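Listing S7. Sequence submitted for prediction.
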Amino acid sequence: MSYGIPSAEPSADIPVCPRHPDRPSYVRCQRCGRPACPECQRTAAVGFQCVDCVNEQKRTTPAYRSPYGGALAVGRPLVTFTIIGLCVLVYILQWIVPGDLIFQDFAFANVFAATEPWRMLTAAFLHSQGFLLHIVLNMYTLWIFGQALEPLLGRIRFLAVYVISAIGGSVGYLLLTPDYPISGVVGASGAIFGLFGAMLVVQRHRGGETKQLWVLIAINGVIGFFIPNIAWQAHLGGLITGGLAAAAIAYAPRGKNQALLQTGGLVLVVGLLAVLTWFRVTAG
């Protein structure tokens, strides 16, 4: 007596997944009606869709953009919260790491401009340990302006403005400090003032009211001249740099080359900062 060996292939009347013909599939896509195995099913508003229909829908759905061409940042301002989190983390490390090593290795001073230029950026994530309001006020202001600017510019463009402004604050301090003090400067104030400048440019470009913003800039700018240990030079440098960076984004003509023109404008701003740094370092 012979015994038949059962076939691994589904019979002809059993629906199979087009992507995996060896798998019986009794669930059909709500869009195209084809069978889909569990691996190829995607949850839809009603029932399931196959992975091919989901991918096709993604390709044909237009991508929503911010007013200045960036990917639309919906929900929480993730870049803003990430920067705040990094600053708070570094502030905690400043207290934990012995020997004040965080400050010594990452604070900016003019003497480091030629040999350790990365300090121009890292200093923006450090804050004074002897003045708690330093980090509190900076992070609060970042939270306020980040919620307004990040959705307008898009996350990547907002991050670019913030980082370039932080560097611009250090360059401003380098240019406007007549000597080369050994003591380092820290704080996100230069980058925060960069957001002031960016908001001013964006508001003017959109035809919005700017009087209150000018008052805010003036008050914060004057404080730097009357309260000791505040680097007004970094504030001014960040303000100007943030305005230039935002102008490169806001005034780039719309069209398929908008992102390229915006990138080129930001590169020019960074190049200007590099030239000014080189000029100051070589001039002595």
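Caption to Listing S7: primary sequence and predicted structure tokens for the chain studied. Residues 224 and 232 are 5 Å apart (CA to CA). The longest helix spans residues 258-283.
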